[in-house]
Amino acid sequence: MKDITQKFSKTAKNMKRSAIRELLKFTSNPDVISFAGGFPAPDLFPIEKMKEVVCEVLDEDGAKALQYGETEGDLKLRKLLVERYNKQGFNIDLKNLVIVTASQQGLDLVSKIFLNRGDKVVCGLPSYLGALQAFNAYGANMIGIRYDAALDNTLEVLQTLGELPKFIYTIPDFQNPSGVTMSEADRRMVLNIAEKYNVLVVEDCPYREIRFGGDHIKTMYEMDKSGRVILLGTFSKIFVPGFRLGWVIAHETVIDKIVTAKQSVDLCSPVLDQKIAAKFLEKGYLDQNIPKIIENYRRKRDGMIAAFEKYMPEGVKWTRPEGGLFLFITLPEYMDAKDLFDIAIKENVAFVLGNAFFCDGSGKNTMRINFSYMSEEMNTEGVKRLASAIRKLMK
Length: 395
What we know:
alpha/beta; Aspartate Aminotransferase, domain 1; globular
């Protein structure tokens, strides 16, 4: 057929491959130390307990676990998640929560139900690449800002033009890619501005429970009094990513529309995975494993920062995350991380180009580094190789 691409929909034409997934092709070589993926540490997966739980689920509820399920999600899992959040200070019930196939599907469904082509979305500079992909696929016009006075000024201008954004997208805790945590004052500021201009807030919280420094801060959903915050959660970073299980918490009107949108996508998220997750939660195994994750990632974060301080040349800066899986490196302004990547691959170390996280195309002198996946020893060796590559580019 001649030029089949002309048959693609506008949505398909807007889709872009993930820069991270594309970079992972370079890391198939076992000699490459990869800081590129957002992978949890595989040695922390609770494999033995999972064997126990899987057998229990199949023995006790095998027929239902292998059958289709409700679009809203497994009832027991939803009840357990509602109970878990309410113990943390939330005030939600079953009508406020739907299970999705990981929070990435949540981002897609939120985009699907709110965005028309050309609608504005405000997001951080930088911001999570997967969210930018989802918004872009639905034709959103993304406006990148930093959460200071620029937010109010930007929305004031957009209001004057009659082009207020549908929502503000934010990752308040250990942001991907920067690793930075939004202060309580800044969270309230964003909420107040959202209230002032009557826009929604999409609060992405995949890393919230992996805090190993600083003070616990309430979510914007907890602070919100008007039902405008949509919160996304996931098991990918605190349990296992392979289950592809997440959830959306929001006003019941939003949840109802997400359920309707999800029915045309996959009918329901994997039922067996949901029942295993519910049993794992019910037995207290998740709460037993999270402290191990926190301690492991704290050591790796500390070790990586120590290696940066020891090996990085002058002029290179990095963030100091209080949790999560990432930190962000800023090179001198005259340098381009793309040029560095070519040198780094020859040094057998990989990272993600920072400009992939900037909706305005800036950030060419930045990169995202993952510290959770590799061992502490490999992290240190990887930093040495990266520092060597940076010195070569500086010359």
